[in-house]
Design brief:
mainly alpha; two-stranded antiparallel sheet; 10 helices; membrane
Length: 234
């Protein structure tokens, strides 16, 4: 057990610049190539709905469950006051959620704790799994969790570091694309029950401005993540 704990808490060697850049390029391909993106986007949905659920719990709402769908949409249901700051915070959390998770991961990686990051992710996925209320959602989280567990348990230190960087880049780069897709669907007359439109009804602030807030937060997280990655010269 001590060896196991030491493995989690030990600082891993600093990754090479080639690894950091290479995993960033690989993540960009997973996002930019549409046939792959249709599947990898489910990771963004997991993070999106997880962020809703986390904030719902933090503001004292009763979390009823989370559903993930095969079209990469999802819904998080919580009980409580339908208006007010708590509900606004829950709706605000979704689209920035993947970027903020990615930024937190980038911070952990910048301190050299790739293994601790992967185990922390596994714990988060187990907690999320307890809130899933449909079969596809269970399947999605279980498959993603199995991949993370496999890398964490059997992967070599270099494989673990590579996977951790790939996942971090993916979250940071995918979050802005999800915001762009939100606005595209709204422009085509869809997504009228989106987070931005629900925020408009609660606050009176135009939905487009909320989309802008989502976009600015995700881009700021990406910029800070790039800075922490060491890609840019100090």
């Amino acid at each position: 057990m001590k060896e196991f704990w030491d493995n989690i808490t030990s600082v891993q060697p600093e990754p090479s610049l080639q690894l950091v850049i290479g995993t960033g390029i690989a993540a960009l391909l997973l996002i930019a190539w549409r046939p792959i993106w249709r599947h990898t986007r489910q990771v963004v949905t997991i993070a999106h709905e997880g962020a809703h659920g986390l904030i719902a719990a933090l503001v004292g709402r009763k979390l009823s469950g989370i559903r993930l769908h095969s079209d990469t949409s999802g819904v998080t249901v919580s009980r409580g006051k339908p208006t007010g700051g708590g509900m606004i915070a829950v709706l605000l959390a979704g689209y920035p959620g993947p970027a903020l998770f990615g930024l937190a991961a980038a911070f952990v990686l910048s301190r050299g704790y790739a293994v601790a990051l992967l185990w922390g992710l596994l714990v988060a996925l187990v907690i999320l799994l307890l809130q899933i209320r449909n079969l596809f959602g269970l399947w999605s989280v279980l498959v993603f969790g199995a991949v993370v567990f496999g890398v964490t348990w059997w992967g070599s230190p270099s494989v673990q570091s590579t996977f951790a960087h790939l996942l971090t880049w993916f979250l940071l780069l995918a979050a802005p694309r999800a915001v762009l897709e939100l606005q595209r669907s709204r422009r085509h007359g869809q997504g009228r029950s989106s987070d931005a439109d629900q925020l408009r009804r609660l606050t009176g602030v135009p939905a487009l401005m909320w989309v802008g807030v989502f976009g600015l937060v995700t881009l700021a997280c990406l910029a800070l993540g790039v800075l922490w990655s060491g890609v840019l010269p100090s």
